[in-house]
Amino acid sequence: MDAVKKLDELLTVAGVTTNPTIIAKSGKSPEDVIRQFAEYLHPEQKFFVQTVSTEYKKMLEEARYICSLRPKNTYVKIPVTHTGYKAIKKLKSEGLGVLATAIYSADEAFLAALNGADYLAPYVNRMCNYGDGIGQVIDLLQMLETQGLNSKVIAASFKNAEQVHTLITAGIQAVTVPPEIAYTMIGHPGTEIAVKEFTKNWQATYGRDSLRG
Q: Exposure winner among 15, 20, 100, 163, fewest CB in 10 A?
């Protein structure tokens, strides 16, 4: 929560994604974590919470609970298992917001889009362990455009800022990145050097460190 608040002051944060591992590492109860984010986020910011159960009926129950947390812009994350695909179809028939997650190939994501998933979350860096993860996501973008599907891609699981840069260049709709990668993207050392130079020259000429004395 602290990291999100700090980034939200600096950048245009479109939303927050969570998963069972992230919540478990917080040291807090899942109810507290979910409640704090639901209360903090503005209505226009999206909130993504993943189901934990792998059993179909319980998965649906968890999904309905998640989508009831806020009046709008709350989405349930459903892994693309066999049970998950079935749940995505059912939940979309009920008009709920769904993000298909734990995606390791363009084909998995494409089929989730056919089932109506609003968002698709390919695990970019993990996909790279099995082949060309970046290429698979770029293929997915082309597949969605070619077939006229409305699902949007929120790429996840990044190792570095270069992966993020490549996918933004390719036209990806969104990325979800850990805070440290976001700071890498806005922390070029050349910027700090330039600002120090400006300040030094200004002080040497005017004897002060602000525009107005």
A: 20
Cα angle: 202, vertex 207, 213; to 5 degrees:
90
pLDDT in tens, 25-34: 999 999 999 9
Is 152 annotated in the active site? no
Question: Quick one: what percent of the chain has pLDDT higher than 70?
Answer: 100
Residue pair 93/115 in contact by the 8 Å Cβ criterion: no
Domain coordinates in residue numbering, the chain: 2-177, 187-213
List pLDDT tens digits, range 157-193.
Answer: 999 999 999 999 999 999 999 999 999 999 899 999 9
Beta bridge pairs of residue 75: 48
- Give the closest residue to 156 by CA, choosing from 132, 191, 184, 181: 181
DSSP designation for 101: E
- Active-site residue (options: 6, 46, 77, 90): 77
Dump the DSSP string for 129-178.
TTS-HHHHHHHHHHHHHHHT---EEEEB--SSHHHHHHHHHTT-SEE---
Q: What is the CATH number of domain 2-177?
A: 3.20.20.70
